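User: hey, got a sec? need CUB domain-containing protein folded
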Amino acid sequence: MLLRLGAPVLLLVLSTSAATYKPYDLNDYCGSTITLTSDELAGVLKFDSAPARSCTVNVTVDILSYETYAIYFNVKYLSLYQSKVNIYESYTTTSGSRLFKLVKQLPGGDVYSSFSPTSVAQLLSSYQSKVTLSIEFIRSSPNFTWNSRSFRLDYNVLRGQSRSDNIYCTALSGYMHKDLYCETGDRVNCPNAYTSTIDVGNYAFWKNQGTSGTYGSSCRASPVSSYSPDIDTFTIVGAIIGSVFSLTILVVIAQLICRHQRGRSLHRHVQGVAVPMHSAASGPTTSVGPYVVGQPNYPVQPQPYPQNFVGAPPTYAEVQASTAAGPDTGAMPDASKY
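Assistant: Yep! Here you go:
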């Protein structure tokens, strides 16, 4: 029973959102391109481990040529020590050539951030039929500690045209899937405001999404995602600690209840102990005149009636004396003798 109670506790800690987010380890795509399709309109871009060398990854959206798209990044974690990340956007000129422009610089060292929601910086690309952002990791420190909060980008793709299952995000001037807008966890898909800047510091103060958003009435109550990118090592450890603590409390309560029930059972047993009763007449009996004298199983001292009580029966000594005097003649004893 305790395990069944503990499982919902762990599930409640880990459930955070309505959408499905696909994670990408950028180490697997160094020097190559991640192409986002209509089934991958939101996800996570991160380095699961420190890159062994400098690395550049292209992220492109190429779905329908007659529609326009934009990529939105919320820089959720940034702790690069002496390394840094630059992000470039490609443009197609009227002559057909492609140019790359530096649109975001993410330096190492200490940075300011927002904690509710978690955000270090934001980036929104331009709306194009084929948009591409290049993430360049520049490694300058040979040895440094790396964890799940060293670098992470939460991305989602916006459309320039409306669809029946889309909701408009005012700050980003585009449409996103309903499940992305109805996000309830610690993830920014539609910020309350967006300001374009090449440096860090334009982090998201608030979100305009979920049931409290402008179009929150379109969201289902308390949705649950099939995967949440917010489940990192720290969250899992916290969930495990919380579950163990809850199970410990349940075990202690169960032990107290068991002890209380055992105490009540023992108390009832002591009150109901049967004490064997030995009858004084359970042994063989001897007839003496009109009286029956029992042979007790253990010595019992006779308690004579008071002599001043009229009509009291003879005492034990008197009966013994009468028996020794002779056989029973059938005559009643003379009451005047007693």
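Quick note: The chain has two domains: 1-16+231-266, 19-228. Let me know if you need anything else on CUB domain-containing protein.
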